């Protein structure tokens, strides 16, 4: 049910069958999605007899700066404004769960990642928005294939996708092009240094460019960066695991992670860590971006918004010195398989307990329209990453992110796999995270770590009911990419 | 003297004759017979009777406990016998599964580890705090130049929000941070311990945060304890020829027992709840090396939505803690009683 | 003589070490709050800002939305500051009033039985996480979730045990004959409380207030559980930016930390000499 | 002015009877002293009169009013406490003014009345001081001044002199007597010191184990104690108690104990058998006589004007005699003694008086 084509079919069907009756009466006027959102919001206010309205919005504290301007615009146009309620990015899930219990309606909508969607839908917190989508006709068809699926669950649409968080690889072309480096590298590894095709090549690059001339153990230049902190590190392993051709479960929800692919991926994942800053185990974006932008590392695998930090004319020491790469992969059965991960990806959810779900929806549609999303994505402080085809050609986005980066980003999107978006996802992931980190720390062998994870996953699956989980997993499978490498 | 000073109530106005033992002030009657007093005085007079008065503060306090804590306790117990997740509809519709959640909890290695770890933290942190606090208090015992400054500074950490402490230390403890810098200078070689992301060092960081902050409290308790030591027994011991060490061991330490009891109870009581430091320093990581009970239950309830399991674990934890509570309270009671007996000549 | 002097030197050495350990983190926080972003993380670390600045305070205290250095985070500090102040003050005041009245009643009349204070103390020993989930369920029904009242009630309940125990020590020190004298002279029980007991235990009340104020001002777990949009406290605000994997906007956070610390430390200095008695739990000799 | 009457007043603490069904009537203006060893219930009785303790049973009347359930402030009493109970946080002036202010006396009158009382109690120069800086005697007078200033009908005093040194205590006794005469109010005074009771009281009430054992004017209590407890409580040194039995010897009755067989006055009807004989030291005379018993002097204690002589006459306990200091006695002397027959008192084995 999760493929893009199926979605289009579903939407078309609903429009075809129900549309003429319902939608015709309620369809909102306007030529673009943002106009329709504004008109819809105005009409909503009018129908409620209001002139203005303040919605409460929960968002990760990291997201506000990039978004507040557009919300102010929307308020100017419609009279519907927003009060922000900021929460630590890893506590969004907890707060949402607590609201699912509380049913207080204390926030109308929120920004959250797709991982929590199945649980929050089951908990009754998320309002399906198909009816409103039918009326507002958001720019769903412009969203990169697969991404729109992340906001859907069991055949219904629950969230407007707004953040193309599939990963990108960045390396330092200035360092490669420095005199003599290419030759030295080629002599040592036998290939011309550049974007790595495989993780082995990335390892070689990282090894080569880690520079510790004084041998202090604190290099002047680190060869690689990724995320290894609690709450984050598992995603980077999962990506490598996917590239190995691995799948987390079989059709009966038996965990497959502890197989050869998983163990090898984990070994590589651990091996690469030695070229990273030591404190990487406690870092996330706010630490990693400035560190990379400070010119302290040769390469990084992370969210596309790294481009904003790395190309920042004042704050970055390495603006213009970066090369954006399609993510590396593994040779599987003699063929290269590249996999990027939709490693966070934010959705705009509307709360079931909101007093003004429709108003919240219109704002969501406004923020995810072609025009406004282009402004958001290209904003100077943005953490929203490009996710629409139109972003590729939008001059504002190109200016902020560079053409090269955008093209690479959308290429990566073609091989982007989802996280484990089934019920209990948070718990599955937390267990995985814990064990991956313990393997990383040398507390467990890779085999042991993954076997324990598998055992824990079995327990979770049994608790949640195997049948339901199998259904959820089957529904997710079509969202995995079919291409091995992007076109 | 004279009429004006007479009791304002004529006999009988307050109590009907032949009605021994029970009060029956009639506010109206009081008003009539004493036009100078308003009905407020009447009410106050009624509240003032000892059997009413002594219960006055108990009404709101017990009410608060009864309305706030009791229903929660009952709800907690009820939930623990169900199999409810937040993702499974309303709790009152959840199926009754008896002891399943409890058995599950006892079979949950992660929970058992978290319990063990939390007690482990307390077992390291509390004695450290006691020893440090006691040592510092001993050093600050007699007057000397600068004593006031020392004591003032030593009390500071207690007054800082634990979240601020957690935040502050997370800044100091990064691998290329001030703390490692100081260690490097002291050691004469580069020290690059990853205090926040090394499996063992992170535990030490959490314990260190607790010790840094709460040694202030044990110090305070011991300073007051030492100041309150009676002089005569110590003088008597000196006259009897005891040396400093013997006096300390045989006279002062036994006299300090109640003070030590307070410090132990106060600190271990709070140390078992430890949440802020791991939450702010390490999020329970790396791995689960700093995941305390509170952090795990937080995740269990709010991230994994497994409320019934969390409730069962909470109750198991309560049983474990109540053993401790029982001991702590016995100690406190004994010490207070002993003191009361000693005080009576 | 020689030994004495040696001991004196050793004592100062020991005390200075702990003083350095105590002060260093506080010093670092205060210094960081005056640093530009370029100086937050450097190697070697900068113990003194080269170009001191007030920008962090300006950012943090400017009402409305202020944009942080990384250009990502916004934070309204004034609201949490006010909320914390209001909630902690109210809860602590009411707790001190009720708790000391209760301690008085227990000391003078033995109300509630000999074990009452001990029973109450055991409430304090229960880890709050234990009741967090049912609390939400329960608070929703009472419509107390995410309200000032809700948080105040919880803090009231959790700080009462401390108030009762700390006040016991102070009240036991007031000779009961003073109260008898006042009552025979015509004072009502309420007036005895106001004119005799209150002035004589004033120091204790202040110390107790301060201590529970610190606890309430600092509480994180229950605040995180029981608030959403309407109410926010300083520890939650700090946590938002500190949950290990989140922001490290060191400068503004240091400013928040300093602001959150300052009032309590100043209060603490003022009542320092009374602090000692407050923690005796009635177990100190007079 | 007010009389005080207690009817069947009882106070139970847990299961102990602190005060056990006391009946007592104190006429208006009388100086009554409740005396007894510590723990006898006298302070509890006083506290019940003051309203500080609620009686378990019984009634208290002050003047015409039955005040059993009244609050202390309504009883129009003055009370001086053992610890004096000066308010440490108030100046002397404010301490004295306290009851006036409680009664909402206008501030101008307060100043005048405090000043007046301070003059009469000779503490005027101390008014600005804090209680902690006062000497024992000064504090004592402040406590009195504070009580007098509202002119209560009944004064209750709970061992008010116990914190003073011996000399001051004697002075203050006189002062209190004078005060009583001046105020002509009812005084109920509690002490464990029998000398205080003897010197000050119009009437003494002896209490022991929650009961009144005897009441009456001091001399009567001394000379004619109701039982062995009262007899032993009053007098320094204490009365001699000799265990023995009354035997008939022909037509005479004699008391027989150890080596001693004094003849008893003729009209004694007491039954024979085991008896305790009580005789005060001043009624033991040294010197030979018709009925003299032999004894050896084992110890002497000179008091100045008189001397106490401990006589060993064969019983385990020595007999104490009070003799004139002029009488030269030395340890080891063999001195026979006689007992004044008209001053002998007899008790049964339970301590009750045999008449």
Q: Which SSEs are present, and which pair or pack?
A:
The complex is a heterotetramer of chains A (487), B (345), C (286) and D (355).
Chain A: H1 4-17, H2 19-26, H3 33-48, E1 53-60, H4 64-78, E2 80-87, H5 92-102, E3 109-112, H6 117-122, H7 130-136, E4 152-153, E5 156-157, E6 159-161, E7 168-172, H8 173-176, H9 181-189, H10 199-209, H11 233-243, H12 260-273, H13 285-293, E8 299-302, H14 306-310, E9 322-325, E10 329-332, E11 335-338, E12 340-341, E13 347-350, H15 357-367, H16 370-378, H17 395-401, H18 403-414, E14 416-417, H19 425-440, H20 446-464, H21 466-476
Parallel strand pairs in A: 1-2, 1-3, 12-14
Antiparallel strand pairs in A: 3-13, 4-5, 6-13, 7-8, 7-9, 10-11
Helix pairs in contact in A: 1-2, 3-15, 11-12, 11-19, 16-17, 17-18, 19-20
Chain B: H1 27-33, H2 39-48, H3 50-53, H4 58-80, H5 100-106, H6 109-139, H7 147-155, H8 162-172, H9 178-187, H10 199-227, H11 231-239, H12 244-255, H13 257-271, H14 276-281, H15 293-303, H16 307-343
Chain D: E1 4-13, E2 16-26, E3 31-35, H1 42-50, E4 57-62, E5 65-66, E6 77-80, H2 92-102, H3 107-120, H4 136-148, E7 154-158, H5 166-183, E8 186-191, H6 194-200, E9 203-208, E10 211-216, H7 218-223, H8 228-233, E11 240-249, E12 252-256, E13 273-279, E14 284-286, E15 296-302, E16 306-312, E17 319-324, E18 337-339, E19 345-347, E20 353-354
Parallel strand pairs in D: 3-8, 3-9, 6-7, 7-8
Antiparallel strand pairs in D: 1-2, 1-4, 4-5, 9-10, 11-12, 11-13, 13-19, 14-18, 15-16, 16-17, 19-20
Helix pairs in contact in D: 2-3, 2-4, 3-4
Description:
The complex is a heterotetramer of chains A (487), B (345), C (286) and D (355). Chain A is an alpha/beta fold. Chain A has two domains: 2-161 and 347-383, D-Maltodextrin-Binding Protein, domain 2; 168-343 and 418-479, Periplasmic binding protein-like II (D-Maltodextrin-Binding Protein, domain 2). Chain A is built from 21 helices and 14 strands. Residues 19-25 of chain A have low confidence and may be disordered. Chain B folds into two domains: 18-56, no CATH class; 100-343, MetI-like fold. Chain B has 16 helices and no strands. Chain B has helices at residues 27-33, 39-48, 50-53, 58-80, 100-106, 109-139, 147-155, 162-172, 178-187, 199-227, 231-239, 244-255, 257-271, 276-281, 293-303, 307-343. With 286 residues, chain C is mostly helical. In chain C, α2 crosses α12 and α3 (78-109) crosses α9. Chain C is globular and about 70 Å long. Chain D is an alpha+beta fold. Chain D is 24% helix and 32% strand. In chain D, strands 6-7-8-3-9-10 form a six-stranded mixed sheet, sandwiched between helices. Chain D has a five-stranded antiparallel sheet with strand order 12-11-13-19-20. The model of chain D has no long low-confidence stretch (mean pLDDT 88). At the A-B interface, α5 and α19 of A face α15 of B.
């Amino acid at each position: 049910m999760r493929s893009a084509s199926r979605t289009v079919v579903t939407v078309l069907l609903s429009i075809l069958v129900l549309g003429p009756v319902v939608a015709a009466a309620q369809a909102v006027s306007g030529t673009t999605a943002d106009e329709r959102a504004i008109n819809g919001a105005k009409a909503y206010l009018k129908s409620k007899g209001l002139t203005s309205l303040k919605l409460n919005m929960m968002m990760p504290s990291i997201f506000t700066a990039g978004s507040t301007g557009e919300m102010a615009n929307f308020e100017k146009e419609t009279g519907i404004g927003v009060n922000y309620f900021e929460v630590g990015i890893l506590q969004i899930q907890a707060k949402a769960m607590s609201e699912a219990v509380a049913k207080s309606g204390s926030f109308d909508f929120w920004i959250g990642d797709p991982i929590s969607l199945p649980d929050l839908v089951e908990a009754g917190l998320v309002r399906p928005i198909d009816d409103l989508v039918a009326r507002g006709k958001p720019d769903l068809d412009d969203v990169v294939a697969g991404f729109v699926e992340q906001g859907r669950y069991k055949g219904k649409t629950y969230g407007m996708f707004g953040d193309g968080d599939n990963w990108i690889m960045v390396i330092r072309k200035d360092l490669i092009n420095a005199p003599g480096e290419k030759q030295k590298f080629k002599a040592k590894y036998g290939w011309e240094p550049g974007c790595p095709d495989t993780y082995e090549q990335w390892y070689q690059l990282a090894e080569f460019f880690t520079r510790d001339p004084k041998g202090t153990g604190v290099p002047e230049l680190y060869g690689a960066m990724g995320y290894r902190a609690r709450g984050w590190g598992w995603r980077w392993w999962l990506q490598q695991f996917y590239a190995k051709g691995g799948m987390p479960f079989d059709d009966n929800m038996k965990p497959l992670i502890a197989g050869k692919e998983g163990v090898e991926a984990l070994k590589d994942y651990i091996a690469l860590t030695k070229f990273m800053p030591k404190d990487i185990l406690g870092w996330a974006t706010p630490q990693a971006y400035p560190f990379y932008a400070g010119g302290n590392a040769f390469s990084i695998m992370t969210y596309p918004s790294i481009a904003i930090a790395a190309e920042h004319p004042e704050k970055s020491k390495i603006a213009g010195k970066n090369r954006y790469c399609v993510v590396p992969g593994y040779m599987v059965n003699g063929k290269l398989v590249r996999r990027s991960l939709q490693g966070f990806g934010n959705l705009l959810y509307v709360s079931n307990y909101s007093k003004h779900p429709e108003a919240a929806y219109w704002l969501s549609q406004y923020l995810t329209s072609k025009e406004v999303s282009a402004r958001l994505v290209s904003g100077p402080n943005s953490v929203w990453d490009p996710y629409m085809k139109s972003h590729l050609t939008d001059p504002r986005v190109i200016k902020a992110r560079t053409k090269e980066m955008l093209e690479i980003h959308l290429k990566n999107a073609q091989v982007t796999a989802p996280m484990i978006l089934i019920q209990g996802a948070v718990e599955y992931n937390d267990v995985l995270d814990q064990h991956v980190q313990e393997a990383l720390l040398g507390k467990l062998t890779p085999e042991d770590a993954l076997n324990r994870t598998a055992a824990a996953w079995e327990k979770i699956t049994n608790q949640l009911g195997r049948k339901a989980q199998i259904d959820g997993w089957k529904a997710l499978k079509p969202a995995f990419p079919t291409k091995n490498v992007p076109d | 003297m004279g009429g004006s000073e007479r009791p304002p109530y004529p006999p009988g106005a307050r109590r009907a004759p032949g009605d021994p033992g029970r009060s029956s002030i009639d506010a109206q009657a009081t008003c009539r017979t004493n036009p100078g007093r308003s009905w407020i005085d009447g009410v106050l007079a009624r509240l003032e009777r000892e059997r009413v008065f002594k219960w006055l503060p108990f009404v709101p306090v017990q009410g608060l406990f009864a309305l706030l804590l009791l229903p929660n306790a009952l709800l907690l117990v009820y939930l623990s016998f169900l199999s409810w997740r937040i993702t499974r509809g309303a709790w009152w519709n959840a199926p009754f599964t008896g002891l399943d959640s409890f058995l599950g909890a006892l079979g949950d290695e992660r929970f058992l580890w978290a319990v063990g770890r939390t007690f482990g933290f307390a077992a390291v942190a509390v004695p450290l705090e006691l020893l440090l606090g006691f040592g510092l208090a001993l050093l600050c015992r007699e007057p000397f130049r600068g004593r006031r400054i020392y004591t003032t500074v030593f009390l500071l950490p207690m007054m800082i929000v634990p979240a601020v402490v957690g935040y502050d230390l997370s800044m100091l403890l990064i691998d290329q941070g001030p703390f490692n810098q100081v260690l490097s200078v002291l050691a004469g070689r580069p020290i690059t311990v990853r205090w926040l992301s090394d499996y063992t060092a992170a535990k030490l960081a959490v314990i260190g945060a607790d010790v840094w902050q709460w040694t202030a409290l044990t110090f305070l308790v011991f300073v007051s304890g030492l100041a309150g030591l009676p002089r005569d027994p110590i003088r008597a011991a000196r006259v009897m020829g005891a040396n400093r060490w013997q006096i300390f061991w045989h006279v002062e330490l036994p006299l300090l027992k109640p003070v030590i009891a307070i410090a132990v109870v106060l600190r271990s009581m709070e140390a078992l709840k430890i949440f802020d430091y791991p939450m702010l320093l390490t999020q329970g990581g790396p791995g689960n090396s700093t995941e305390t009970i509170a952090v795990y239950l937080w995740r269990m309830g709010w991230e994994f939505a497994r409320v019934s399991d969390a409730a069962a674990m909470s109750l198991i934890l309560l049983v474990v803690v109540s053993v401790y509570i029982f001991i702590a309270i016995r100690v406190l009671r004994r010490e207070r009683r002993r003191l009361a007996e000693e005080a009576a000549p | 003589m020689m030994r004495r002097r040696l001991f004196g030197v050793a004592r100062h050495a020991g005390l200075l070490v702990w003083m350095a350990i105590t002060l260093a983190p506080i010093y670092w926080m205060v210094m960081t709050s005056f640093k530009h972003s370029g100086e937050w993380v450097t190697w070697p670390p900068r113990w003194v800002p080269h170009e001191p600045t007030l920008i962090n305070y300006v950012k943090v205290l400017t009402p409305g939305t202020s944009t942080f250095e990384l250009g990502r985070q916004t934070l309204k500090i004034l609201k949490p500051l006010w909320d914390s102040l209001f909630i902690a003050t109210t809860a602590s005041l009411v707790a001190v009033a009720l708790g000391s009245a209760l301690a008085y009643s227990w000391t003078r009349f033995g109300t509630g039985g000999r074990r009452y204070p001990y029973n109450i103390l055991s409430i304090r020993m229960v880890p709050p996480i234990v009741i967090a989930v049912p609390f939400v369920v329960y608070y929703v029904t009472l419509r107390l979730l995410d309200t000032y009242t809700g948080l105040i009630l919880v803090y009231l309940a959790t700080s009462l045990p401390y108030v009762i125990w700390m006040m016991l020590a102070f009240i036991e020190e007031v000779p009961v004959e003073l109260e008898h004298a006042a009552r025979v002279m015509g004072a009502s029980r309420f007036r005895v409380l106001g004119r005799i007991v209150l002035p004589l235990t004033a120091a204790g009340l202040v110390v107790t207030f301060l201590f529970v104020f610190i606890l309430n001002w600092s509480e994180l777990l229950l605040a995180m559980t029981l608030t959403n949009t309407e109410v926010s406290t300083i520890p939650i605000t700090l946590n938002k930016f500190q949950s290990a994997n989140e922001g490290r906007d060191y400068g503004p956070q240091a400013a928040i930390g300093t602001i959150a610390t300052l009032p309590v430390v100043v209060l603490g200095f003022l009542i320092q000499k009374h602090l000692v008695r407050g923690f005796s739990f009635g177990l100190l000799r007079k | 002015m007010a009389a005080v009457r207690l009817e069947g007043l009882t106070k139970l603490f847990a299961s102990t009877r602190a005060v056990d069904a006391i009946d007592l009537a104190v006429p208006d203006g009388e100086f009554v002293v409740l005396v007894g060893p510590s723990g006898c219930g006298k302070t509890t009785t006083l506290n019940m009169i003051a309203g500080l303790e609620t009686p378990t049973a019984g009634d208290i009347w002050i003047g015409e009013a039955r005040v059993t359930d009244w609050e202390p402030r309504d009883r129009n009493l003055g009370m001086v406490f053992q610890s004096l109970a000066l308010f440490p946080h108030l100046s002397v002036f404010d301490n004295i003014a306290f009851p006036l202010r409680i009664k909402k006396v206008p501030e101008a009158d307060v100043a005048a009345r405090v000043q007046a009382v301070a003059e009469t109690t000779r503490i005027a120069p101390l008014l600005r001081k804090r209680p902690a800086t006062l000497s024992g005697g000064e504090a004592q007078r402040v406590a009195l001044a504070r009580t007098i200033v509202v002119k209560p009908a009944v004064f209750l005093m709970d061992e008010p002199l116990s914190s003073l040194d011996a000399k001051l205590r004697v002075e203050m006794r006189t002062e209190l007597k004078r005060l009583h005469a001046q105020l002509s109010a009812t005084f109920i005074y509690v002490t464990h010191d029998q000398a205080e009771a003897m010197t000050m009281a119009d009437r003494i009430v002896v209490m022991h184990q929650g009961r009144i054992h005897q009441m009456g004017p001091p001399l009567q209590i001394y000379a004619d104690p109701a039982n062995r407890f009262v007899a032993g409580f009053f007098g320094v040194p204490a009365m001699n108690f000799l265990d023995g039995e009354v035997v008939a010897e022909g037509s005479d009755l004699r008391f027989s104990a150890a080596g001693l067989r004094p003849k008893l006055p003729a009209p004694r009807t007491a039954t024979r058998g085991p008896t305790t004989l009580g005789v005060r030291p001043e009624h033991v005379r040294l010197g030979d006589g018709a009925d003299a018993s032999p004894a050896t002097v084992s110890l002497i204690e000179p008091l100045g004007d008189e001397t106490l002589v401990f006589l060993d006459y064969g019983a385990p306990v020595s007999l104490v005699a009070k003799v004139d200091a002029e009488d030269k006695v030395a340890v080891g002397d063999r001195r026979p003694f006689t007992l004044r027959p008209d001053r002998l008192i007899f008790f049964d084995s339970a301590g009750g008086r045999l008449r």
